[in-house]
Amino acid sequence: MGVRRFAFPEGGDLSSLLAGVATRTPLVTDDEVRVVRTLYDTFDWRIWGDDGLLEHERPDTPGGEGHLVWRRRSSGEVLGRLEIDDVPRFVTELRSGRLADRLAPVVDVRAIEPLTRLTTDRQTLRMIDDDDKTVARVVVDRSTVVPLDRPHGTRAEPRTLQTTIEVVPVRGYPKAAKELNRLLEAQVTLRPQAESSAVEALRTNRRRPGDYSSKLALELSSTMTASEAWCTVLRTLLAVMHTNEDGVRHDRDPEFLHDYRVAIRRSRSVLAQGKGVLPDAERRQFADELRWLGGVTSPVRDLDVELLELPTYDTSLPTSLRGSLQPLADWLQARQRAAHGDLVAALDGERYRELLAAYATWLDHPGHDPRAPEAAHPSSAVAAARIAKAFRRVVRDGRRIDDTSPPESLHDLRKDTKKLRYALECYGSLFPPETVRPIVRHLKVLQDCLGEFQDCEVQALSLRTAADALLAEQRTQAATLMAIGHLVEHLDERQAEARAAFNRTFRQFDTDEVGHLVSLVRDHGRASLAASPAGREEH
Amino acid sequence: MAAIVLASYSSKGGVGKTAAAVNLAHVAAEQGWRTLVWDLDPQAAATFYFRVKPKVKGGGRALIRQKRPLDDVVKGTDFEGLDLVPADFSYRNLDLVLDDTKKPLRRLAKVLKPIARDYDVVLLDCPPSISLASESVFEAANALMVPVIPTTLSVRTLEQLDDFLADATSPPRLMPFFSMVDGRKRLHRDVMEALRASRTDLLTTTVPATADVERMGLHRTPVTAQAPRSRAAAAYRDLWAEVIATCRADR
Ligand SMILES: Nc1ncnc2c1ncn2[C@@H]1O[C@H](COP(=O)(O)OP(=O)(O)OP(=O)(O)O)[C@@H](O)[C@H]1O
Ligand SMILES: [Mg+2]
Question: ipTM greater than 0.90, yes or no?
Answer without folding.
Answer: yes
